[in-house]
Design a protein that fits this description.
This protein is an alpha/beta fold and 160 residues long. It is built from five helices and eight strands, in the order βαββαβββαβαβα. α1 packs across α5.
Length: 160
C-alpha cells in the first residue's frame, strides 16, 4: 500500500504529525510552501482572511501527482477555523487523484472550527473519497496515545 502525505506547516506542529505518520507507514512526504510574499505586519491577518474565504495561494510545489498512490493524507494548521490557503491550493492542484481515498488532519491551538467539514468539501470537489478527517490540539502533538490513534485511523483507511 503506497501512501502520499501532503502537508502545510507554519509552526512545525503539522510537520511533526506528518513526519510521525510518514515514519509509521514509510510513505512519500510532500511539504507545501506558501511562496506569496507578505510583509511581517500583514502576514497573519491577510492569510487568516484568505483561509476564512477559502481562497488559494501560490505554492511550491505547484502540483503533486498522486496517481501511483493508494491513499492520500493531507495535513494543515487551522487558521480562522479553516485549513490554510496553501493546503487548499495543493488539493486544487493535485494530479491523478480521481477516486482516491483520502484522510485529512488539522492541528490547532484553540478550536478546529469548520476545518473537518472544509477538508471533506475540498477532497470531494477533487473527486476523492474522504474516508477520515480528524484534528489534533497543539497540546497533544507529543501525546503518544493521540499519535497511536492517528496511526490507527490512517491504517484503517488503507483497508477501504
Amino acid at each position: 500500500m503506497k501512501i502520499c502525505i501532503i502537508y502545510h506547516s507554519e509552526t512545525g506542529n503539522t510537520r511533526h504529525i506528518a513526519q510521525h505518520l510518514s515514519s509509521a507507514f514509510d510513505s512519500f512526504l510532500v511539504e507545501i510552501n506558501d511562496v506569496t510574499p507578505y510583509s511581517r505586519l500583514t502576514r497573519f491577518l491577510v492569510r487568516c482572511k484568505m483561509a476564512r474565504g477559502e481562497e488559494l495561494t501560490t505554492i511550491e510545489p505547484a502540483s503533486v501527482d498522486v496517481s501511483e498512490y493508494d491513499l492520500v493524507v493531507f495535513g494543515s494548521p487551522v487558521w480562522a477555523f479553516k485549513p490554510t490557503p496553501a493546503i487548499h491550493a495543493a488539493i486544487a492542484g493535485l494530479k491523478g487523484c480521481m477516486g482516491k481515498p483520502a484522510v485529512a488532519f488539522s492541528t490547532h491551538g484553540g478550536r478546529p472550527g469548520q476545518a473537518d467539514e472544509t477538508f471533506k468539501k475540498w477532497i470531494e470537489a477533487r473527486g476523492m473519497v474522504p474516508v477520515a478527517v480528524t484534528n489534533i490540539n497543539q497540546n497533544d502533538i507529543e501525546n503518544v496515545k493521540i499519535n497511536k490513534e492517528l496511526v490507527a485511523l490512517v491504517s484503517s483507511s488503507i483497508k477501504v
